[in-house]
Amino acid sequence: MLGKKILIIGGSGGLGKVFGKFFKKKGFEITLLARNEERLKKAAEQLGVKYELDLKKSVEDADIVMVSIPIKSTPEMIKTVTPLMKKNALIFDVTSLKNAVYKELSNACDKYPINCVSLHPMFGPGIKDMKNYVMILLRVGGTKQYNDKINDLIALFKEEGLNITETNPKTHDLRVALTLGLPHMLNILFLNLLKRSDESLSELTRYTGTTFLLQKVFAESIIQREMEMFGEIQMENQEFHEILDMLEKLIIEYKKIIKNKDTEGFNKLFIQGFNYSKNDDHFKYSYNYFYDFMKILKKEKM
Ligand SMILES: NC(=O)c1ccc[n+]([C@@H]2O[C@H](COP(=O)([O-])OP(=O)(O)OC[C@H]3O[C@@H](n4cnc5c(N)ncnc54)[C@H](OP(=O)(O)O)[C@@H]3O)[C@@H](O)[C@H]2O)c1
Questions:
Q1: pTM score > 0.85 for this model?
Q2: Average pLDDT estimate for 6-16
Q3: Among 54, 139, 156, 295, which is 20 to 30 Å from 146 by CA?
């Protein structure tokens, strides 16, 4: 039902390559497309698949078009490629934000006889095995074949052990603001605050037992990731802008509590945090996990 030919726009990128490998394993005929030929050729050779620089030619030939390019460019790319697609072909993006992309895909499947779905893999290019990872899926719409195609696509992902969570663009972007934008921001701020203190990380590490070490390693893992995408996840998401406003108010409240030595106010915030998290699945084991992570770090020679 899905056809055999898949075009991956952004095929030389991190996720493009992950999905290229995935679809090749599933027996698809892959074509990678991007702008820089040298990188594209290298990616195609690595995966043992074809590459193409001509967008029109490759879209017209594809049964499935995957768009895996930066967030800001994705809606425009969808607008460009959807009029060129074969009847009943399927298009999906993998962008980390869904508001703008969903609108563009909805327009496309209203105008053309194609099938549109939007995916957000909750993993990055470093993934080794998709088992037990999450993929968010937003159904958009399409032709009479829509349900069969989407069910076949979902079945492919499930075979690999992926958990599929379905949602809508508003809920998606709010949750991504909280689950990606917020932790990214807190860690970027953490490192910048330390930098402004003029203390070196190595010197601070000599004074640390547990909490700082774990926090530092987590922040260091984040600061090595995709700067452009991390910026877009925060700047392009209106839901994140609202979270920032909430944070600003919370910091002002917190500052007042600390400066006024308001123990009651501090305890109130602490207990609110405790009560909010106490029924979470990880809560009971969190302190044990903390020491499991510490065991790994303590084995290292610093
Ligand atoms: N990385 C993650 O952890 C992650 C996780 C979930 C979702 N995502 C989403 O996946 C998408 C891709 O992310 P990524 O990390 O794989 O990015 P990436 O490594 O920067 O790769 C981007 C790819 O897009 C190509 N490209 C950029 N602009 C293009 C254009 N106008 N036309 C054709 N090709 C273009 C690039 O090659 P050229 O520059 O040579 O054209 C490259 O192949 C993003 O929308 C991101 O939000 C990423």
A1: yes
A2: 98
A3: 54
